[in-house]
């Protein structure tokens, strides 16, 4: 049995004798800073909006700087009482981390590269050891507690602790090395504006060449380090051109080799995986194109691989089937990933012996195809597919067996190495990886049959059940294959983690099936993964769609969650909060928290009907819930371990992640149904998932805390306006809350590229009206239209953010405070979109934010189960 904290008052009113840490009358607050009003009039499509706070756009003005300081002072004063809790959370987090540690060495060309972290140091140190011979594929044993450079033959490649000295902000923008390991190309950002200065260092002598590539987006070496190709940024921070630099010559002599004039597109440059080509990619949110040039002729002209088509995305990589030709020759391959025919992407493998580029989309042999069900363009692939449910199982005779019958199947990529092939895909809302031997792939390709991939299964979890109710997995896991930089590696590395299991790095031999655990993240402080539970439930939202929701909790503190049905129905949007009690009854839980079959008479619950009216008005149980989401850009919120999250779970908090539309968890259709003129599905899904858990009696509205950042911050602003009664508090990080104003201004960073995501309100009145109906700033309470009930809010933002300009959260804060909403803001002066840098600084930040969240949920004390 669990010791439960005192129940917080219900949002509908106080119960006799109840007190709450959320009660604004409990502490006499100082007034927030008062922002001046200076009306700025915007008229678009005949609609006029008067914005009194647009003057905050000049972030370098004295007035804005003074206002920011006043908000920071106000925030510091309001949160002074959380100092001890924040310090305790920091100590708990720090106590779980192996501060002096190292990564598993990875072979690249003639060296084994690894990263060291050391106690007391903010940043990691990149190190390396030479390989012993060409066949050396077993990572060396390196002392994880040693000083950088302490091992025989160990060299320091880059020590960010030294490089960051004298800077409040420091972020590495990339490292590239010549094939012989002598020359290092590296970029740093010391302002947070994502403009990097790249330099070239001789690792033999430690000296640097005089040329500096200032304020660029990224860069790469040719393998011989004689040339650098780099990304130039325009005034709107858009990566728009590629330039070529001859090492050892003045930068002002550099040559522009590619320019993208379409403002919807961003460009990038790098080497192909086989390092035989320099590859330029240019892409918008919906279209892409690839240009290439042989490394052997860096001063030549780039050639397009496949000419771009509107609303068609593609990418290409290059490999070969070694010795698989009829006379034992290599078969050169182009591996094309595209959605020209299949909206959820397909992978085609082209035998490049047939002809020279350009090629066409759909050419070659289809290896893997995604599900068209529910997609906007699904009917182009299969008649009637667009009208079918996203979750309908999909089968295609061309697909490997591991993909047959998958729901929400999206193809995410394939990698051909010398000895193996790996396939990444998304199915049933989770990421998956399959693998096969390269020789088998060559045989299947030549025979024209489906490839014989084998899915990698989650590692054993010490006897824990693999599936829960309704066949849903009891572990919600993530796989990744990012640790394979070498084409020649004989074995494949993959990473694995879940909400309750720390990250692991494995090495798999596809030929034999041997799977070796190379490293498991160490979590100190007595952490026991078996004490925590995770599961997936599906919530039927207001339009009938089934939305997956991940739940994480400490098992002994919330035992009833294991019995929660696998499918929940959200109450109607107009339903009152009194439904919480009804939901508990339906879930088999009494108001006192006991199961029906365990229930005996008590003062709080009376089966004979006494005081039924009062019981209907209070929450079934007083469970604090932290619910977080994103829901944009087809980015998936996949399961992952967090050492900081443990402090929330150990205080009895239910951690929930609704995988809402706008993300990519269920493939392309999931994204399409949460963007442009369907964007409101994102917000409705989040509100309905929240309401379903409250309705079922497993979350108290008066102790529900919501969190989201960037586009997830827009989500926070929208749900606060839509359903303020569902949330006691909200943390919005770098929130995109003035979306309409920003997307109307094509001179701002990112705006034109974002029209594919949100729609173009400047030229389309229907998009304008739709966005205005949900954009948080324009729909927030104000002094003219105050809200009788609204969550308290913590806003975090940064002055140098180029993705969400600081003016957006500043205006939102001013408007809400003028309406009497309890809002505080922590504003970083020297940081960008990603916040502060340095691991201890980041731990301090997350501890501070979690302290505020726990206080808002009334869950500040560790809750110990009864023995």
Low-confidence stretches: 1-27, 466-470, 578-620
Strands of the widest sheet, in order across it, are: 34-32-33-36-35-37-38-39-40
The helix-and-strand class reads alpha+beta
Largest sheet: 9 strands, mixed
Describe what this molecule looks like in 3D.
It is a single chain. By secondary structure, the protein is of the alpha+beta class. It contains 17 helices and 40 strands. The strands form nine sheets. The chain has a nine-stranded mixed beta sheet, with helices on both faces. Strands 3, 4, 5, 6 and 7 form a five-stranded antiparallel beta sheet that branches. A hairpin with a 5-residue loop joins strand 32 and strand 33. Helix 2 crosses helix 17 (839-857) and helix 10 (680-695) packs across helix 11. Mean pLDDT is 89; it is low at 1-27, 466-470 and 578-620.
What's the layout of helices and strands?
Layout: E1 40-44, E2 47-51, H1 62-78, H2 83-96, E3 101-102, E4 106-108, E5 111-117, E6 125-130, E7 155-159, H3 160-163, E8 171-177, E9 183-189, E10 196-202, E11 213-216, E12 218-221, E13 227-233, E14 239-246, E15 255-259, E16 266-271, E17 277-283, E18 288-294, E19 303-306, E20 314-321, E21 331-338, E22 346-351, E23 365-369, H4 378-381, E24 410-416, E25 420-427, E26 430-437, H5 438-447, E27 454-455, E28 477-480, E29 492-498, E30 504-508, E31 515-520, E32 532-540, E33 546-554, E34 567-569, H6 579-586, H7 612-616, E35 625-628, H8 645-649, E36 654-658, H9 668-672, H10 680-695, E37 704-709, H11 711-722, E38 729-733, H12 739-743, H13 751-758, H14 765-774, H15 776-779, E39 792-798, H16 807-818, E40 823-828, H17 839-857
Parallel strand pairs: 32-34, 35-36, 35-37, 37-38, 38-39, 39-40
Antiparallel strand pairs: 1-2, 3-5, 4-5, 5-6, 6-7, 8-9, 9-10, 10-11, 12-13, 13-14, 14-15, 16-17, 17-18, 18-19, 20-21, 21-22, 22-23, 24-25, 25-26, 26-27, 28-29, 29-30, 30-31, 32-33, 33-36
